[in-house]
């Protein structure tokens, strides 16, 4: 259950900061997904920062497109993209408008609505795996491109809302290379996670995809 003190919506100014400040500060915060079947709440345990024009690993590195338009602001909105022809991944936009930075939500602990998440993640062996990885997280929460651009900083009854939760103490935050990022962007230690949390996904270095013969 979400404690009453954890239910305050995160204000937009929380996201209107440099991405490398926002990303580790998102750990322990709570994402609520409202659906016709009921709510699902997730405590964030792993994220990755992407810094727009300063970051070869970012979707916005080469400028604005129809796909990445939401990344250019305003902060506190949801950026959803489709990858590998089969999965959706969810980000939270941060920094000033027109700056195009965002935080990928990589993993979390389902703290409410696990029974509903299980119906979407039938392959999960236990509840710790329900949102263990960015595609699994989006699947468990029923997030797709229809939610791209959703404002997560509102007190209204919207599909996605970010709550204050309980921030993770700095001595429990770890950082390292981002998962699956190639090229110059691979060197950045911009993946942040809660130490020893069982819902955090395993690190995997980038492996080039081979074309089928």
UniProtKB/TrEMBL annotation:
GO terms for biological process: base-excision repair. The lineage of its organism: Bacteria, Bacillati, Actinomycetota, Actinomycetes, Kitasatosporales. This is Putative 3-methyladenine DNA glycosylase. It comes from Streptomyces griseomycini. SUPFAM superfamilies: FMT C-terminal domain-like. One of its GO terms (molecular function) is DNA binding. Gene3D superfamilies: Methylpurine-DNA glycosylase (MPG) (3.10.300.10). Pfam families: Pur_DNA_glyco (PF02245). Its EC number is 3.2.2.-. Belongs to the DNA glycosylase MPG family. InterPro entries: Formyl_transferase-like_C_sf, MPG, MPG_sf. HAMAP family: 3MGH. Keywords: DNA damage, DNA repair, Glycosidase, Hydrolase. The keyword Cell membrane does not apply. NCBIfam families: 3mg, PRK00802.1-3.
């Amino acid at each position: 259950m979400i404690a009453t003190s954890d239910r305050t919506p995160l204000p937009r100014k929380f996201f209107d900061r440099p991405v490398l400040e926002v990303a580790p500060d998102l750990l322990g915060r709570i994402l609520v997904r409202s659906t016709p079947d009921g709510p699902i709440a997730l405590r964030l345990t792993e994220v990755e920062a992407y810094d727009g024009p300063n970051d070869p690993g970012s979707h916005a590195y080469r400028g604005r497109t129809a796909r990445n338009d939401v990344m250019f602001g305003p902060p506190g909105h949801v950026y959803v993209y489709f990858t590998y022809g089969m999965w959706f991944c969810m980000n939270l936009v941060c920094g000033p408008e027109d700056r195009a930075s965002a935080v990928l939500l990589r993993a979390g602990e389902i703290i409410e609505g696990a029974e509903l998440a299980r119906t979407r993640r039938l392959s999960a062996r236990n509840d710790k795996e329900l949102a263990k990885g960015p595609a699994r997280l989006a699947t468990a929460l029923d997030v797709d491109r229809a939610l791209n651009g959703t404002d997560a900083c509102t007190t209204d009854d919207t599909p996605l809302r970010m709550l204050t939760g309980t921030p993770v103490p700095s001595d429990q935050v770890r950082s390292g290379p981002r998962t699956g990022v190639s090229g110059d962007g691979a060197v950045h230690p911009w993946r942040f996670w809660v130490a020893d949390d069982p819902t955090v996904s395993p690190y995997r270095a980038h492996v080039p995809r081979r074309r089928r013969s």
